Amino acid sequence: MRVRAIMTPAKELKVLQPTDSAKDAIQLIEDNGFLSLPVVENKIFVGFLSKQFIYDTFFKSGNNDIQTFLEKPVGEFLFNKVDAVTPDLLIEEAADIFFKNKRRFIPVVGDQNEFLGIVTQNSLFGILTKIYGLHDPKISILTDDFKGVLTKIAETISKNDGNITNIALLDTEVMGIQEISIRLEGKDIDRIVKKLEEKGFKVREFVK
């Protein structure tokens, strides 16, 4: 899946201009319950601004006149150390960017560097949860022969009216033992677990 499928389009976003005052920026951020907002100039993403960054800059400046300070333009507080991505980026790569950079959002731009929208942590984690079936029941099976047992596991689940939504392989790092984590759907998951155990599979964990 690509970023374009989960991004929030620019037309649905509140954005700031570099010429907006810091006071107006704070008001817009507070009125909409945001932590930060993208800053766009002539349809080009130029950075983002958070209320915290404005106040941090004020306290570090030694200025005592907050009202006058907040009349400064957004351009003076701009944080632009943010790499934009394209709509064709894989969502797995977007997840890696969030993990490494701890960003609140990632800007998305087109071929001409025009601002197209953003990807937020919530939208990314929401779709990953859906893709990997994290709300589905989970069965964990221990094995030393992943390739040899996977087909048999799938057949047993299918024959008992189950449907696999996700499979993950984890190395336990103990004597070559691997853990197969399976998310699945079905009317009677307990019956599926029983049938797997009857087939000799070592069910380590079953989470309904």
Main sheet: strands, sense, barrel: 4 strands, antiparallel
What structural category arises from helix and sheet content? alpha+beta
How many H/I helices? 7
Task: Strand order, main sheet: write it out.
Answer: 7-8-6-9
Shape: elongated
Mean pLDDT: 88
Q: What is the annotated CATH architecture of the largest domain?
A: Roll
CATH H-level superfamily of the largest domain: CBS-domain
- The H/E string reads EHEEHHHEEHEHEEHE
Radius of gyration over alpha carbons?
25 Å
The top level CATH class name of the largest domain: Alpha Beta
Q: What distance separates the N and C termini? A: 28 Å
List unreliable stretches of 5+ residues.
none
Oligomer: single chain
Short description:
This protein has 208 residues and is of the alpha+beta class.
What keyword list fits this structure?
208 residues; alpha+beta; Alpha-Beta Plaits; 4-stranded antiparallel sheet; 3-stranded antiparallel sheet; ACT-like_dom_sf
